[in-house]
Amino acid sequence: MVANNLPQLGYEYVLMDDCWHAPSRNSTTGAPVADPNKFPNGIKDLSDKIHAMGLKFGIYSDAGTMTCGGRFGSLGFEQIDAQTYADWGVDYLKYDNCYNEGLSGTPQISHERYANMSRALNATGRPILYSMCNWGEDGPWNFAQTIANSWRISGDIMDNFGRFDDRCPCTSIIDCKLAGYHCAMSRIIDFAAPVGQKAGAGHWNDLDMLEIGNGGMSFDEYVTHFSMWSLLKSPLILGNDVTNMVRE
Fold it and tell me: GO BP, one example (predicted)?
């Protein structure tokens, strides 16, 4: 990122996604533990190195009993996890929605499950950007503004402009009952259109990461992708290999 001058363009966060975890929590304290094979010096060491480069550090967890990758989740462990993240110097939390024990189905239920982590993060006293990743379930654009900085509005994006995929079955996000995944870029734009006004300073609709440079779309389609994400006030999260970027 630094070599490509990305911080000068506003890209200041290095975000680590799922599967950083050890097989289990600390057996004595219940605190989250990193995989010692991947991070022999721990997450705090990684965070310190990222901060030394003038960047910020983001981590991943899940509002369920397990993460989507099958590691331990944060449901019921919000306070100790939030404090551990703060102690590690975390600046950003992506909070997913797998294995949520059925704690969804109404805005009130989803709000409370995600608000638990919001309150825990605030209690640490460290400013940590809170990114809800509940796939648009229960209409987070109607309740998340007071508890989070961003919220996903749909299932996971795929690197394609407009191909229909039955794994992303909804045509409207307002009455969608199954968010799915493999959602084409144009489908997510359609989803975002009716909820665009819900975004504002400090809270944004998250259209999922940018796919630019991954090879599934043309140059012009990628330009449209970036332009629409900007127009719709989505966080601009690079989902490509930043070590192998071309100037375009």
Answer: melibiose catabolic process
159 is catalytic: no
For the question of residue 96 being annotated catalytic, the response is yes
Q: Out of 3.40.1000.10, 3.40.50.170, 3.20.20.70, 3.50.50.60, which CATH number does the structure's domain 6-152 have?
A: 3.20.20.70
| Residue 45 tokens, joined | 């060491």
Q: Of 81, 156, 206, 208, which one is the catalytic site residue?
A: 156
Which residues touch 174 (CB under 8 Å, ≥6 apart)? 139, 194, 195
* Residue of 62, 81, 91, 96 with catalytic role: 96
Query: Along the 248 residues of the chain, how does pLDDT read in single tens digits?
Result: 998 899 999 999 999 999 999 999 999 999 999 999 999 999 999 999 999 999 999 999 999 999 999 999 999 999 999 999 999 999 999 999 999 999 999 999 999 999 999 999 999 999 999 999 999 999 999 999 999 999 999 999 999 999 889 999 998 888 888 888 999 999 999 999 999 999 999 999 999 999 999 999 999 999 999 999 999 999 999 999 999 888 77
